Amino acid sequence: MRDNALAREFISMGHEAHLVPMYLPLQLDENRVDKSTPVFFGGINVYLQQKYGIFRKLPRWVDRLFNGRRLLRAVAKRSHLTSAKEQGELTCLMLRLEESHLGKEVDKLVEWLERDGKPDVIILSNALLAGLIGELSRRLEVPVVCTFQGEDSFLDGLPNPWCDTAWKEMALRVRDADALFSPSQFYAKVMEERLGLEADSIEVIPNGVDLSGYEVKGKCEGKRIGFLARMCHSKGLGLLVDAFIRLNDPSLELAIAGTMGGGDDVYVTGLKAKLKKAGLNGCVKWFPDLDREAKVDFLRSLSVFSVPVTYPEAFGLYLVEAMACGVPVVMPDASAFPEIVDQAGCGVLVARDSVDDLARGIQELLDDPDRELIGKKGRRAVEERYHVGAMAANFEKVFGKVVRK
């Protein structure tokens, strides 16, 4: 979503911009900016070409069959069946492409970029693609920049030796980039330390949302606590459910929206059973896979918003979306959240992983007579710092420097 909004904003600024899907078709809650761009390094092709030599020699029309959107999406829904070992192997191979059997996939990407208009600059949306930096720089002779967007949690989840190998490879590859970006000061410091980079070598450009359609909510009837993110443990959904049970107030409503990945349905079923046992299942509503309009309506219906993530979140675009609708927030006093929430004055920070503190923070905000004013401060912060126009303008400044250099 962030990349799609950024590409659209670049186009509105008078630039030509293409959004290039990697591995899988884009899944967006809004219209894709560039529907004609094919998928590159399709997940099925990458797997088959690396594992079996015959697939490296097949004609490209066969590759296009495996890149079919329906087929790739069907495989993505079963992604939980992919072993951690295979994920580790493929991650390391993508970081050192010259040692892989994916030359055909690299050629297809480079040829498409040359044929459809050689770019002035290429931005890689996450550092797991850093293995492309050297190859694209050498063959296209253009600057390549790279953004960090929460790679540490994925890499740390890989088994060894793949985890250690991937970190070492990424540390080498990102040094070839013409510029490096992070969405927060917190995450810039995390990646500088873990990759052994010099202090302040990563420039901070906060993520931004397209404000079209986002409006400050009206006065809420009742008290509704909301969650909008992937419905999984790492996003803190279980913590929020436990805090709701701890509040034990039948006048409250818990509204849960977001996506479910492979295996999340089992986790959600367990949470529903816990709520039923507590006699609160009737106070909870579930909203899976909302489109953009429904998502905005959902956010505007909330009294308080919370996604109490359990890991070091690099940014949290869902937080900015809630702020854009004028919803006050309760977030962990960790990761990137203090630099967003404290600066905006738009909510309450609580101890991470603490059900008691989360329940206390939610109750405190629900009881605050200035709750609506607090929410409006969040909207003002988005208008000033966290909208896609500000993000694109900041990128444009850096692009001008690296292109001239």
Descriptive account of the structure:
It is a single chain. The chain is of the alpha/beta class and 405 residues long. It folds into two domains: 2-209 and 388-404, Rossmann fold (3-Layer(aba) Sandwich), CATH 3.40.50.2000; 223-384, Rossmann fold (3-Layer(aba) Sandwich), CATH 3.40.50. The protein has helices at residues 2-12, 43-51, 60-66, 69-77, 84-95, 103-115, 133-140, 151-156, 162-173, 185-194, 237-247, 264-277, 292-300, 317-324, 337-344, 355-367, 371-384, 388-404; strands at residues 122-124, 144-147, 179-182, 203-204, 223-228, 252-258, 284-288, 304-305, 329-332, 347-350. The longest helix has 17 residues, at 388-404. The mean pLDDT is 88.
Topology of helices and strands:
Elements: H1 2-12, H2 43-51, H3 60-66, H4 69-77, H5 84-95, H6 103-115, E1 122-124, H7 133-140, E2 144-147, H8 151-156, H9 162-173, E3 179-182, H10 185-194, E4 203-204, E5 223-228, H11 237-247, E6 252-258, H12 264-277, E7 284-288, H13 292-300, E8 304-305, H14 317-324, E9 329-332, H15 337-344, E10 347-350, H16 355-367, H17 371-384, H18 388-404
Parallel strand pairs: 1-2, 2-3, 3-4, 5-6, 5-8, 6-7, 9-10
Helix pairs in contact: 1-18, 5-9, 6-7, 11-16, 14-17
Summarize the structure.
This protein is an alpha/beta fold and 405 residues long. The radius of gyration is 22 Å and the shape is globular.
